[in-house]
Amino acid sequence: MALLSFLKPAPYLDEIQDKNVVKQQYRYWRIRTFYAMYIGYALFYFTRKSFTFVMPALQSTLGMTKTELGLIASILSLSYGISKFLSGILGDKSNPRYLMAIGLILTGVFNILFGLSSTWWLFAIFWGLNGWFQGWGWPGCTKLLTHWYSQSERGRWWSLWNTSHNVGGALIPLIVAVCAQYFGWRSAMFVPGIICILGGIFLINRLRDTPQSLGLPAIEQYHEDFSGSANHHQEKTELSVKEILWNYVLCNQYIWILSISYLFIYIVRTAINDWSMLYLTEVKEYSLITAGSCVIWFEVGGFFGNLVAGWSSDKIFQGKRNPINVLFTAGVFATLLLFTLTRAYTPFLDSLFLFFFGFFIFGPQMMIGMACAELAHKKAAATATGFAGFFAYCLGAVLAGAPLGAIIKNYGWDNFFLTLFICCLIPLFLMLPLWHVKVNPKYRQSEFSGKSEFA
């Protein structure tokens, strides 16, 4: 009970009446909240992707097969996906300050325990537990982004925050590859783990809950921006778990379409992210350092793709997220086609293709989650994105682990890439009918009626 009380949302304080103080405080806390969750989520990637870059070392030093490596990757994805959904429900009902910080600390602990292990079963247990607490990062960020930034500006803020994936993903190959090559693979697990434990302490110090918990007005009221789907008249009304899950997620057709699309997007994203290092070292015979240097460009491309996707969805498509999802998915398909046609030792071209993979794949990776948050109630945002995350990780990322490893082993890399082509086309056609959808009409009607949809 003490733990549950510890995680409860911070109570609302009496609203500050001085407009100058409100403006000053909002400016300060928005910046502080943003850089804290940016650094925090980048660090989550340190402990999530460390395994990817020690896979070749585990294969060579411990004799692990591709299927065994794929199973470990799938276990994390399955655990993370279930946790992301359940933690999404928890995230809508908890304080993101502690949820995110505790999750980061525990992922660091389980990375260290992984590095102390030598058997497949212990690897599987610790990596599964790591995946579970990885799921505590996203819901906290979703809640903070929907409560501190209004819809008309959220695309830019969300896309800028989403580059934390790329910063973390770009730094981890350098740290882990160097540690693995010069100090052994175990050090490549210890170092990220220690960094993340310290990062969790940093988050407890820096983060707070909603603006109202600091005596500030709701962001919609402060910005006079009521363009979103949330019913701002009921800002202080708490929704039950049943209302959040049933009314705003399970009975929401848009969430289902986007979640199924997310499944296939994540097969492609995870496949490129997890298997490209092994592909470059095994098929093209790159060294760990050369392959790691190529893979870094995936995250660099994702950094710029995030920014372009967020800016264009706000400025060019007036807050509509699905045109970006469609166009960027088509870009992934085109890049994949070019990548498969190049089989020689070409580090420059491989780096270029991985740059464009990252540029295009991070568009729908970000925008699908963002669209889910905006097409549900504001107080159901973490649950909606968690539901989509369940499809992405429990199905999409899991299928990109052991099943793709089996395809590579039994049918070769050509059929691996053929599978990815198919996985690009399915979400492309699923999301095309949603091109013009900006908000959920069902919730928008209740918003502007001046009455609560719960009346």
Describe the protein:
It is a multi-pass membrane protein. There is one protein chain. This protein is mainly alpha-helical and 455 residues long. It has a single domain, classed as Growth Hormone, Chain: A. The chain has 19 helices and no strands. The C terminus is likely disordered.
Number of domains: 1
Q: Helix- and strand-based class?
A: mainly alpha
N- to C-terminal distance: 32 Å
Mean pLDDT score: 85
Biggest sheet character? none
Unreliable spans: 229-235, 445-455
Kindly list the characteristics that best describe this protein.
Growth Hormone, Chain: A; 19 helices; disordered C terminus; mainly alpha; 455 residues
Give the SSE layout.
Blueprint: H1 2-7, H2 19-49, H3 55-61, H4 66-92, H5 96-115, H6 120-134, H7 138-148, H8 151-183, H9 187-206, H10 219-223, H11 241-250, H12 253-282, H13 288-315, H14 322-340, H15 347-374, H16 381-399, H17 402-411, H18 413-431, H19 441-448
Helix pairs in contact: 2-5, 2-7, 2-8, 2-9, 4-6, 4-7, 4-16, 4-17, 5-6, 5-7, 5-9, 7-16, 8-9, 8-13, 8-15, 12-13, 12-15, 12-16, 12-18, 13-15, 14-15, 14-18, 15-16, 17-18
Task: Give a brief outline of the structure.
This protein is mainly alpha-helical and 455 residues long. The chain is 76% helix and 0% strand.
